[in-house]
Design goal:
Blueprint: E1 2-4, E2 14-16, H1 38-99, H2 105-140, H3 153-156, H4 165-172, H5 200-212, H6 236-241, H7 245-250, E3 254-257, E4 262-264, E5 272-277, E6 279-283, E7 291-295, E8 306-312, E9 315-326, H8 332-337, H9 340-350, H10 359-371, E10 376-385, H11 388-420, E11 476-477, E12 483-484, E13 486-488, E14 511-513, E15 518-522
Parallel strand pairs: 3-8
Antiparallel strand pairs: 1-2, 4-5, 5-10, 6-7, 8-9, 9-10, 11-12, 13-15, 14-15
């Protein structure tokens, strides 16, 4: 602080305050330094921009809703005023009629017309009130994407995922809920329906009644369908991918209906419906820790006639050609009554496109379903035909496919037997051992015996029904050149499981051939 003395004739003194370099000025503190990291500044700018967009979108949606409600309110006020005026006119007319009983027929007719107009206006008012109620319910129950969650967001410091604001606004805007009167953006052609009861049994019966009202196609499926018999280690997708030619073209777009999520109409079994998640979670391919939710079109794959297959009691069947349409979505009560297997299957299907799934993620998705944040769609299945050509071709291909599988398995067993047996014919030893598949020979073709080998035995000659398995003839060679004639046992499938005893006077105990997988009875 510096003080200057005043003039001798002037008693005024002036005091000047000068800030010092060592002491801060009272009331003024040093400003906080801004972050110098350019990435953090960019992230903050993006976050601010996103918040502005969200606020703008929310305000726009609010303004549109307020505008619609204002129009409806204005219309109701006008109709109410008109009703009041007509009511007053009616009361005045009725009073005049009472006072002058000699009023003519024209006055009565006019009063009748006015009362009819009043009834019509009251109906319009009721419709408008119902419309306003639907708008309010729709704005509260609008289905939007669930909240986005990321694993270890704070620790990893991953860049902020930029969501598609237009897609979110299209799904969260109150105008996206279509009603029978006010048109909105296309949303899978759904309409708001007022249900009398939301009990699970009533909902299921309602869907079944809709399916029962659908007529059957001109060529419905057969009453009794033959199953597609496949080897135990083969899946349906592997089998269908092995098709070729015309059958492969016909099955270019097929769908497998899971037994856990599919229900068939009891009164008309050709039609049914299945459960499918409306929202699915996927991982950003560029950032493995960023995940996003997207609404899927559950009927996109089946808008055109699609060949369908279903599984019942462990056997696959060809169902026919089907088209999909939307039914009422699954309610919270119905979700609570689903079996544990079905609920777990739907949860896993919801996050099937997500990477690094943990039990915590499965639990969170299950809780979102329990809270109603996620929805399950009920997709109707309308049978539009039954392709007999596909049906017969699939059965024929299944028979050939099974035969080829068993043949390759038996060939592999022979190779393993030759490796483990140095005295096999493939190694040039005088000992003889062979395994053959009778189904590899055409019908009626003679089988030439080989020295030291027994003749292959046909299943039909032994009195056994054809099962699709081959009969095996094997010979075991001794070191001194003596051969034991053996006849193979026929492995019978299903209820015919047993052993065909060989012909001969003397039998010896059974020898288990572990390599070939068959039981062989040896006689001397």
């Amino acid at each position: 602080m510096t003080t200057l003395p005043g003039h001798a004739n002037d008693e005024k003194h002036y005091t000047f305050m000068v800030p010092s370099d060592s002491e801060p000025v009272n009331g003024f503190e040093s400003k906080p330094e801004l972050p110098t990291n350019p990435l953090r500044i960019a992230e903050m700018a993006i976050e601010i921009q996103l918040e502005k967009l969200r606020v703008t979108e929310a305000m726009s949606a609010r303004d549109v809703l307020v505008y619609k409600l204002s129009d409806a309110y204005t219309s109701i006020r006008e109709k109410t005023d008109l009703i009041d005026r007509l009511q007053q006119a009616l009361n005045a007319a009725m009073g005049a009629t009472v006072n002058t009983p000699s009023t003519g027929f024209s006055t009565l007719q006019q009063n009748w017309n006015q009362s009819t107009d009043i009834n019509g206006l009251q109906t319009q008012v009721a419709d408008l009130e119902a419309l306003i109620q639907d708008l309010r319910v729709g704005s509260r129950n609008t289905m939007g994407p669930p909240p986005r969650y990321e694993e270890e967001d704070g620790k990893s410091g991953s860049p902020t995922t930029i969501l598609d604001i237009q897609a979110i606004s299209a799904s969260t805007s109150p105008l996206a809920v279509s009603t029978p009167i006010l048109p909105g953006p296309p949303r899978e052609e759904r309409s708001v329906q007022t249900l009398i009861s939301e009990e699970p049994e009533d909902m299921v019966n309602g869907r079944f009644s809709v399916l029962a009202s659908i007529p059957l196609p001109e060529n419905p499926p057969d009453d009794t369908l033959k199953p597609i018999v496949l080897p135990p280690t083969c899946t349906l997708h592997e089998f269908l991918s092995s098709t070729s030619g015309m059958l492969r073209n016909l099955l270019g777009n097929y769908r497998v209906l899971q037994s856990l999520t599919t229900k068939w109409c009891p009164s008309r079994e050709e039609h049914g419906y299945f459960y499918s998640p409306i929202f699915k979670c996927s991982t950003n391919p560029r950032v493995t820790t960023a995940h996003r939710w997207q609404q899927v079109d559950v009927t996109a794959r089946m808008k055109q006639p699609t060949e369908c297959f279903y599984n019942r009691e462990g056997l696959w069947y060809y169902a026919g050609s089907y088209q999909a349409f939307r039914l009422e979505d699954l309610t919270l009560k119905e979700w609570a009554e689903l079996s544990t297997e079905t609920a777990n299957y739907l949860v896993k299907e919801t996050i099937s496109a997500r990477k690094n799934v943990s039990p915590q993620n499965i639990y969170e998705v299950n809780q979102l379903y329990n809270a109603g944040a996620l929805k399950i769609a009920c997709v109707g299945l309308q049978c539009v035909g039954f392709n007999q050509e596909v049906y017969k071709s699939v059965l024929e291909h299944a028979a050939k496919f099974t035969q080829a599988k068993w043949k390759s398995m038996s060939t592999g067993a022979i190779s393993m037997a030759n490796i483990n047996n140095p005295g096999s014919p493939t190694t040039g030893s005088p000992g003889i051992g062979s395994t053959g598949n009778l189904l590899a020979k055409p019908a009626g073709a003679p089988v030439k015996p080989v020295p030291g080998l027994s003749r292959p035995v046909s299943p039909t000659l032994l009195g056994a029904a054809t099962t699709g398995f081959g009969a095996v003839a094997a010979g075991l060679g001794l070191g001194n050149g003596g051969a034991w004639n053996t006849t193979a046992a026929l492995v019978v499938q299903g209820t015919n499981q047993g052993l065909l005893q060989p012909t001969g006077a003397e039998n010896v105990p059974t020898v288990e051939n572990a390599v070939a997988g068959y039981r062989v009875v040896i006689k001397k």
